[in-house]
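[scheduler] slot 2 assigned
[scheduler] job type: sequence-to-structure, two independent chains
[scheduler] chain ordering preserved from manifest
[runner] begin chain α
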Amino acid sequence: MIIDTFLFNNEFDMLDIHLAISENYVDQWIVLEASRTFSGLEKPYNLFNNLEKYKKRYGDRIKVVTLELDETQTNLICETMMRKGLAPALEKYNLEDIIIHGDLDEIIDPTKWNKIVSAMDEHNKPVSCGFEMFLYKFDQKAERGWQGSVVARKKMFETPHDLYKGSTEITKKKRRTNAVGLSEPVGWHWTWMGDDEIIKTKVKSCIESQHRNPEEILSAFKEKDTRAAINHKAGSSIVTPDYPEIVMNVLKHYPSYWHNSI
């Protein structure tokens, strides 16, 4: 059994993309949705309240775990509680079952899945997946890579938080000394993607940018200035990405997520 776990706020397009690509190797998705954003803003249970629309295609393969937070539980405290909050939903699975944990916009390449599992079993350790990073559009590639999702057998960790962060402590930094890496990227971090409202909501919701002006960040993305948009963490350039056909068959249905026509 392969179980994919991640957090959700309101990015339904990215959820549809994540499910459509990962269904090629995932048996079950478990999604945690909190009553507040990382920044502490109250929010409805967007996915839980709309789960019925996914039943026709995915049936009972997708489960939502809800978590009630109060106004004092924000930022790294909130993130930690959310990642740890997935643990009870994993108790019913076998120790040999494979768990993926990451973020919604971190997606493993289906053509690399067998290589990941082989590395995990060869080293008897979780695999830290290195990803190519794209910002705002599927053809705007960052100048840096990304430490993304982690894959492990259930017996290899206690909670998804310590699997992903490599620490039981509340921490922003990912300490992946608990895992083995691979020599090539095995997926993609498609971050800061969505329509104008999704981008502005993310500014107000996430840890890094909640005190910045949403309109200014949106403007920077539209001007292709990712350095200004994300606190000078990564420049980027427009490229012609070489996505596998199985992935392009999904991404081509989102023309607004590309700079160049496809």
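[runner] end chain α
[runner] begin chain β
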Amino acid sequence: KVEYDLGAMNLTSVSAFETTHGSSRADIDGGNSVNGPGFIPFPSDTTDSVNHLRQLTQELRLASNETAPFSWQAGAYFFDSELRVTTDPGFAPPTTLQHDNRSWALFGQASYQASAALTLSAGLRFTDDRKNLRVVASANTQAPVAVSDQQPSWDLSARYELAEDLSLYGKVARGFRGPTIQGRDIAFFGPASTANSETVVSWEAGLKSQWFAR
């Protein structure tokens, strides 16, 4: 995280990089090769391995240094991920898949102190999310799969201070999660499946207070 004071505003950069690998083995129907299979009529031990995961995120934002009556922030966000995973079903050759996900967003938020007691806030975000799946190795041939979507998210909120340690608040917001691809069925000779984007509009209202001197 890097911050730079520009006087009337602050410039902030947040960068992150993550990589990992691992594997796990389980019997999906509760049976085993010694006591016999479960409801699947053959041994069903499977191994899943994360061969490679790399994720890079970068956020840049500008924020005002003034707290009242008007404050704001605006910025951009970038996400890039590569995931290579192998599923070994035990009864067929292992399947290796490559998942790629790239997403970016622009966002902004502002707050206005309309009076000594009332503060109004609003935020807006636009997100572009793209995912791709391709087969690296498998006995089941599968064409590459791609999904993408672009959606806005937003929120409106208000806070009213009844006293120094007592306030009322209300908020309405729209959230968004991009589409997804599930490719594990390729290892079991099925097609990859996809899920559409998910959106939600939430409402919230309540009372906040601080007791016993915080």
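[runner] end chain β
[qc] chain β: The CA atoms of residues 113 and 119 lie 4 Å apart.
[scheduler] slot 2 released
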